[in-house]
Amino acid sequence: xxxxxxxxxxxxxxxxxCLVVGDPGRADKIALLLEDSKEVAKVREYHVYSGLxxxxxxxxxxxxxxxxxxNVAIHELIWSGAKVIIRAGTAGSFQKxxxxxxHTIVTGAVRDDGCSQLxxxxxxxxxxxxxxxxxxxxxxxxxxxxxxxxxxxxxxxQSVGNFYEGPLGNNNMLWVNSNVLCQDMEVSLVxxxxxxxxxxAVKAGAILNTDNYILATDRADSSSYDxxxxxxxxxxxxxxxxxxxxxxxxxP
Length: 252
Fold this sequence. Notes:
The chain is of the alpha/beta class. It contains 6 helices and 10 strands; from the N terminus they run E-H-E-E-E-H-E-E-E-H-E-H-E-H-E-H. The protein has helices at about 25-30, 65-80, 130-145, 170-175, 185-195, 230-245, and strands spanning about 15-20, 35-45, 45-55, 55-60, 85-95, 105-110, 125, 150-160, 180-185, 205-215.
């Protein structure tokens, strides 16, 4: 295979250090932060850029919303050269202490994403690579020394395959009582897919920006749920800085 079938990447297009986000628009904005930034691919929800962050070559890529599209992105990014992958995304909080704009550094994830179950049995764990987790914690600590109001926590998230609920409802209180910090839609798949790579050669982790407190939010009501508020936007900007700094601390 000389080029990947969906995103049209070639081997070597993607640097070993790779930051992935859901929103293509966020990838576009991150690209502006890189030195010598160039567009590598722009297909469907997949926007891929490469450049330098503090002198280190990095790739930034979007994977869209949910498991199946993320499965495509992670597979082809690894095939093209990614060795360290950090997902930087948004999440709803299960804990009041994680207000909007605060962050979760993910150590592992509940696998309700609806996609990883088709790769391996549900007993297989979704766990962040310890080197990536340590790097994210170190980058967060460094940011907090200059910005003491910065709030981050370290722990578990739940990844789900649906955003809006149906007649089956949810198990939110189960995860609240199980000390799960937040809920996103892709982390568990990213962690599983990277863990499955031969010889554990791909190191993955995640940092998530809180955009709502799930137990007090009606996602169908824009007056209750605003993922584009200034508080969330500032949290996203901080998250990207922490994630990029963490990438540079991990050896591929």
